[in-house]
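User: Design a sequence. Structure:
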């Protein structure tokens, strides 16, 4: 019985605290605009453009090909796993107007580094002798522009 009386008393108190305030049409319009824009305050409204470069990767057992065309001040560290049955590989690099820093690292099946060279160099190169298995092909780009391409095949 006491709880009902207190509950009833609380309702009366809340009902008596209702206030009415007159608001001008300009203030009402400003409040509506503010409430409409409030959810956007937490949103990131920057327009993100997709990268302009075109990357192509062909990753087959004993044959790995990579090409990234249209690089513009590209900075990234990219890593691929590649299956090789051999103990060494041939690397053919053919850059086109490549500027900035672009480095190719290759590690053998045991994780030992068997190759490191700038992708700005054109030519055919060989890895050192390594262990067959899952090799790691790592590319490190720093403000690179142009086209980077190479092919790695089991010797």
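Assistant: Done.
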């Amino acid at each position: 019985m006491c709880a009902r009386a207190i509950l009833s008393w609380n309702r009366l108190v809340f009902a008596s605290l209702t206030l009415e305030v007159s608001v001008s049409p300009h203030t009402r319009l400003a409040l509506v605009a503010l409430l409409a824009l409030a959810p956007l305050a937490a949103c990131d409204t920057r327009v993100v453009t997709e990268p302009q470069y075109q990357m192509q990767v062909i990753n087959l057992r004993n044959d790995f090909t990579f090409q990234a065309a249209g690089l513009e001040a590209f900075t990234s560290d990219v890593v691929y796993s590649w299956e090789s049955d051999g103990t060494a590989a041939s690397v053919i690099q053919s850059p086109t107007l490549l500027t900035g820093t672009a480095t190719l690292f290759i590690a053998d099946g045991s994780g030992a580094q068997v190759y490191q060279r700038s992708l700005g160099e054109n030519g055919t190169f060989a890895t050192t002798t390594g262990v067959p298995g899952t090799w790691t092909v790592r590319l490190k780009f720093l403000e690179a522009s142009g086209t980077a391409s190479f092919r790695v095949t089991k010797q």
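Residues 1-10 have pLDDT under 50 and may be disordered. The first strand starts at residue 54 and ends at 60.
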